[in-house]
Amino acid sequence: MQIRFTPARLAIAAAVFALGSQAHAQNAPIKVGLMLPATGTFANLGTMIENGFKLYVAEQGGKLGGQEVQYFKVDDESDPAKAADNVNKLIKRDQVDVLVGTVHSGVAQTMAKAAKESNTLLIVPNAGADVVTGPMCAKNIFRSSFSNWQPAYAMGKVAAERGHKKVVTITWNYAAGNESVKGFTEGFEAAGGKVMQALTLPFPNVEFQALLTQIAAQKPDAVYAFFAGGGAVKFVKDYAAAGLMKSAPLYGPGFLTDGTLEAQGESAQGMYTTLHYADNLNTPRDNAFRLAFAKAYKVNADVYAVQGYDAAQMLAAGLKAAGGDIKNRDKLVAGMEKAEIDSPRGKFKLSSAHNPVQDIYLRQVKGNLNEVKGVAVKALADPAKGCKM
User: Fold this and answer.
1) What is the mean predicted confidence (pLDDT) over 44-51?
2) How far is the CA of 368 from the CAs of 38, 272, 288, 308, in angstroms?
3) How far is CA 168 from the centre of its chain?
4) How many CB atoms lie within 10 A of CB 143?
5) For 49-66, how does the pLDDT look when each residue is reduced to its tens digit (9 = 90+)?
6) Among candidates 117, 153, 112, 114, which has minimal Cα distance to 132?
7) Burial group, residue 210, by CB count within 10 angstroms (0-12, 13-18, 19+)
8) By C-alpha distance, which of 189, 259, 264 is closest to 224?
9) Strands 356-366 and 369-380: what pairing?
């Protein structure tokens, strides 16, 4: 018997096929591309971010927006020269739905460029490069962490309030360090202080002795430093060994002491830092998070774990608004933009540039903890200069 395909039958068949295709698309796993450091200075930071992200997914039964999650990983080595090749492995080879990365600001800028060009969703769980939510901002680029300006500006205000008038700054000569120093200088000098000298050394160089000699010769009231990971460990220990802690107290953003205190030991005790997270917030939300993280990974959570956790929360909020369909970009983005994230750090919303508007805490090192001493600046939003969406 010959079957005749009338226009009506063809229309019904097309509709059924479309519905089947849509259902398949919505049931397909969400492909998450983790581009984080697995080796080098920032390796531990990458591990904490990944574990934080996966903890939130595990708490949702292994799904986000009702969809299974599939992971693809690339070690970015914190090397900007390899960033384009690495990110394209995830975008072109693995065809991920969303990129999550990274720690190094220089690498993150390349990721943001690639994300804009390919219209791939990007969530930055650490790198604070101001340009990512400034001139490079886009509808598909979000950040779950901070801008370099935020904790630095807050520490500038704190240093001035603590009576310091003359400060020397020191950092690696790369995007994160330079932007952090700029933010500190803005906050400090607006409050009446003066930065005497801005010292730098190449990333990831940790030969600090010559620069410490320069600092001693300048006799500043205090020093502001931006380092993280292994570099932060060595700098704080070298600074204390040089006998500078009493004559020129050392300040910095929280990365100077987050995830590093056990290795820094006695050298870091009493130091003040500013960050959007602290170890003893003692809220029900943070306590539950820290307990779950410690049970899952046998280590204490830090700010990097929180940022990874919140990256997953942000993605989940977007997927909920999009009915679990990662391809429904308009609803996904709108859901992320409007979400209030119930973070362990405290609830926050995103600015129009997709950067957290958040409290910046003043913390002090006590033992292996960065204990909160108060809020340095309440609900601080990055200026996002040059952002035009």
Assistant:
1) 96
2) 24, 13, 20, 22
3) 26
4) 30
5) 999 999 999 999 999 999
6) 112
7) exposed
8) 189
9) antiparallel
In whole angstroms, what is the distance from residue 191 CA to residue 216 CA?
A: 24
Residues in the chain: 389
Rounded Cα distance between 282 and 242, Å, is 36
Encoding tokens for residue 273? 């830092």
Query: Coil, helix or strand for 310?
Result: helix
Is the peptide bond between 41 and the residue preceding it cis, with omega within 30 degrees of 0?
Answer: no
CA distance 297 to 150: 29
Global pTM reads 0.89
- Do the Cβ atoms of 166 and 193 come closer than 8 Å? yes
For 180, other C-beta atoms within 10 Å of its C-beta total: 31
Q: Which helix or strand (DSSP H or E) is residue 363 part of?
A: strand 356-366
Cis upstream peptide for 220 (omega within 30°): no
- What token pair was written down for 244? 């500078």
Give pLDDT tens digits for 5-43: 565 555 554 544 544 444 444 578 999 999 999 999 899
Token pair in block for residue 253: 């953003």
Q: How many CA atoms lie within 13 A of 366 on its CB side?
A: 8
Omega before residue 102 within 30° of 0, cis: yes
DSSP string for residues in 32-59: EEEEE--SSTTHHHHHHHHHHHHHHHHH
The one-letter amino acid at 301: A
Number of Cβ within a 10 Å radius of residue 262: 11
CA distances from 246 to 24, 181, 219, 249, 267 (A): 64, 22, 11, 6, 12
